[in-house]
Amino acid sequence: MVTLDSSAAWQSARRMVSANRDMLAAIAGVFFLLPGLVAAVVLPSPQLSNGMDQQQIADAITRFYASAGPLMLALSLPMLVGYLTLLAVLLDRDRPSVGAAIGQAVRLLPSYLVAQLLTALVLSVLWVTVLGGLAAIMPQTFAVLLSLIVMIYPLTRVVLIGPEMVVQRLYNPIRAIVGGLSRTRGQFLGVLLYFGPALTLFVVVYGLVMIFVGVVLVNLSQGEAQRMISEAIAAVVFAVGYTYFAAIAASAYQQLGPVNGTGDAFSPSSPS
User: Does residue 268 register a pLDDT over 60?
Assistant: First the structure.
């Protein structure tokens, strides 16, 4: 069995980004950055104030997501297309043009959405079940924390569903899920040690950048202008992070797939 080498995979991801820098920047700008900027303009902020208690804050956030949910879902669709497009560019040995990669991503999007919804449903049920069992034997705070730790395992198992769908061109979401799970079977530690530090680094960098931006903007602008500039910078950081996540997923798949861990991605001639 091939074992994921996180160091080699990271070097591969860096080479992917470097070799396709201009193309990836264009895709990220259209599918990640632009939706982020649109969201900054059209999405309202939750109506929170300093005098609110915990229940009022929860109610305000619930109302926000109830009203903004459909628009947030619509803005997430181009991001998913962008993710699938990046995977097509990075993993398809036929070296498709940007237009061909976008076309492939659009055709795969409905199947990918179904796969994501099915995966989210199963993970949600699993988390509720684990949380309920732990809450019966320990304080709720510890139960929540431990249940989240337990959920790291199934989350690592599903990270390669997207690459599996793109490389194999699977329009059957069930086959994509099964194939993605097969790539990560027995690879929990390797996948965790690869994706975990990368995601942690992104969170840390994102947090530090936004703290710095917030400190600078306090002295330069106020009100809506400050919010818009902050949201724009956040969108740029997110676009860069999402692009590297796609490269990380692609490099992991190159080592663990597509056929029994051969480590050599291929481009099938016909869809499945």
Answer: no
